[in-house]
């Protein structure tokens, strides 16, 4: 029930005397107000913890659910970066920064549209730059082609998943594409996030593509608009180039869904994974995301060999790890 600590200046949550033990149930669970803050409930011993359970029970269970949601968001963020990196179709050979505006230059000589581009480009060596490029104009990709993963991750944690679209405000970073002819793409596109209504009643937003606005710690600016009731599935466009892009991504999506099914067939489920002690969770999460990366990379190589698409021969750098991108409703 509780974990003893070597020394503590904290007071028991029940009797308010000196406390040296903490509740294991909600230990290190997110506080729900920040991306890094945690909650800790202190007790002087097992007797006080038992007597306080009637009061602490609801708080503890809510904190445990919140921790599962943050962990699920962490997994979704990692997979989003992997999917975006492997299916990257945007070539960038230079980044010019003017304050908070980043100008992304297309190469003067572009090999063609029917190809995937290794990531990251040599001009993006920092983690901040890589995550911003991986997220740029990718919010729809995340919600459309990762909808199977999102639904599986959150189905036992939430009563509703809704897509929210809005125009961003006060972003720290603004990315602009510059085409070989010098034209600047300054289109003010809507941004999309996933609104999560937890079984506890709390509401959060998952913003997997937020790094394009806020650097290495993505958050969700703006306000909640009119919600859609379902995570949006990919809609095929009739425009030839767009349709080709969506068909390529759909192949990766299908493999992603198969990989999730294969993983869960030999595991007890995501709910068990999300409830593991921290060290075990990190180990098994790494195993899961590595499996996805290996499968998607293998499919990419297989498809290239059979001429389904071309892959540019530019040399990529090593990818960076993903981070959680969950923001509290009150932060939005």
Please supply descriptive tags for the structure shown above:
15 strands, single chain, alpha+beta, 4-stranded mixed sheet, 4-stranded antiparallel sheet, 332 residues
Low-confidence residue ranges: 216-238, 314-332
Figure out the total of helices: 9
Q: What would you report as the Rg, rounded to the nearest angstrom?
A: 22 Å
| Secondary structure: helix percent | 25-40%
Helix and strand run: EEEEEHHEEEHHHEEEEEHHHHEE
Structural class: alpha+beta
Largest sheet: 4 strands, mixed
| Oligomer class | single chain
How far is the first residue's CA from the last residue's CA? 35 Å
- Tell me the overall shape: elongated
Query: Could you tell me the strand content as a percent range?
Result: 15-25%
Overall mean confidence score, pLDDT:
81
Q: How many runs of DSSP E, i.e. beta strands? A: 15
Strand arrangement, largest sheet? Answer: 6-7-10-11
